[in-house]
Amino acid sequence: MNSFDIETLAVRAGYDQTQEQENSEAIFPTSSFRYTSAAQAAARFSGEEKGNVYSRFTNPTVRAFENRLALMEGGEACVGTSSGMAAILSTFMALYESGDHVICSQSVFGTTKVLFNKYLVKFGLEVTFVSQTDTSEWKKAIQPNTKAFFLETPSNPLTEIADLSTISALAKANGCLLIVDNCFCTPILQRPLEQGADIIIHSATKFLDGQGRGIGGAVVGSNELVDEHVRGFMRTAGPSMSPFNAWIFLKGLETLPIRMAAHCQSALQLAEWLSLHPAVEQVFYPGLKSHPQYELACKQQSAGGGLVSFKVKGNQAEAWSVIDHTQMVSITANLGDVKTSITHPATTTHVRVEPDARLRAGITDNLIRLSVGLESIEDIKADLARGLDLLR
Hints:
Number of strands: 12
Number of helices: 14
Helix content: 25-40%
Strand order of the largest sheet: 1-7-6-5-4-2-3
Distance between the termini: 55 Å
CATH topology of the largest domain: Aspartate Aminotransferase, domain 2
Structural class: alpha/beta
CATH architecture of the largest domain: 3-Layer(aba) Sandwich
Low-confidence stretches: none
Radius of gyration: 21 Å
């Protein structure tokens, strides 16, 4: 289906109809599969014959999700995992070893930093954190044992944009892989593989699902890197995606193009409204001309995305007051939902990051993050205004 547009791929790609001739993808909630003979069982387990073996690593519903997302991202292969963090863990455990060095953006998700600093270092992986936007820092951080660059763009929660073309060229010139978390843009707004990335990471929990129904992740890339190495780790270690969640994500992908368009339209309107509010100190949204990487965002992305962050005039107390005065918006750290959500990153998503590192990443106590949903934009504004108007 490579000749089809991405909107068609989102609806129809990656699934083989069964003999029942169903029009909607089937769920295969089975742990194991039958074989016609002992010889076939042996051939499946040895890899001589392709087919289902055990749902930890081969399941028709999970495979349909993997195939569809791979086509949408322009990759050769995809591995579904139990969560977005499992996707990151699986990638680094599969591809790297003790003594290898990774350069990572300091603007990555807080739990990603904890994974690197607290756990992967136990296995001898060395990590250096650098500015998301200053490519000279990436160049200076390169060591003889550097094997990978890792970043998410736009970043969470300040929506910093990394220059994918420049950083990918730097990575290739030094024999490194570029691994990009594309969770916030999805392949609808941005396709990093086309801009030089080697591997794409997803938290399917977010926009790919779009309705906050399940936890899952994905790794997309070449057959060699993803299908051979990352799938091999997933098969052995078992951070597997469940068939039911894979079916949920398949249904989410069907509406992803129209949902992302609606998220972006509302997010831009909200960002513009917030930038004019007297209680707001600064707004972070790639679709605003005031964004430091606005021109780069226009080059790399087809729209600004559904994530908006802003600083209120004040400190934590003022930020919490705005959050607590909402009546409709969901106070939750999840994002990518049709329901608008609001959170205070310094005390939720980034609370396990050391205070100094948090400040270096721009996560201040007066920062609020919004994931803009699909409700009436006027109702979202009115809900935020309850608290913001009190800060005037």
